[in-house]
């Protein structure tokens, strides 16, 4: 029991280090999730953009919300904001500092996800495959516009 108390006191005294560790673990989990996820483009002109951009931006939003929820300072900032005025006025500089600290930590995993997807390039190619000008390519002269869009989507 004594060891448990010592470990608990260590985590209480080093909350910033623990939060940085949690953010690092979220970033590592985001990379692991992306590498285990096998991206395959639907190859349909209407769905490529939505699918590619959805894979690129929806998981980072979820990771950002997880980072906000897991941050202990979020509750402290909310308590400071909701605290009645009393004798001491609310210090907006403290709230601004805490908010920026929370946002910075919560943005680590989403930024890592977006960087990994951009370095991989499959989502980006899938999303913008239909927006390429077919005039830049040779051999599209005898093909109808519908077939050109289907070919570009593939």
Automatic annotation (TrEMBL):
Q: Which GO terms describe its biological process?
A: ATP export
- Keyword Cytoplasm annotated: no
What compartments host this protein?
Membrane
Q: Which UniProt keywords apply?
A: Ion channel, Ion transport, Membrane, Transmembrane, Transmembrane helix, Transport
Q: How does it sit in the membrane?
A: Multi-pass membrane protein
Task: Enumerate the transmembrane spans.
Answer: 49-71, 92-116
Principal subcellular localisation of the protein: membrane
GO MF terms, alphabetically ordered: monoatomic cation channel activity
Q: Which InterPro entries match?
A: CALHM
Q: Which GO terms describe its cellular component?
A: plasma membrane
- Family assignment from sequence similarity: Belongs to the CALHM family.
The name on file for this protein is CAHM3 protein
Organism, as annotated:
Todus mexicanus (Puerto Rican tody)
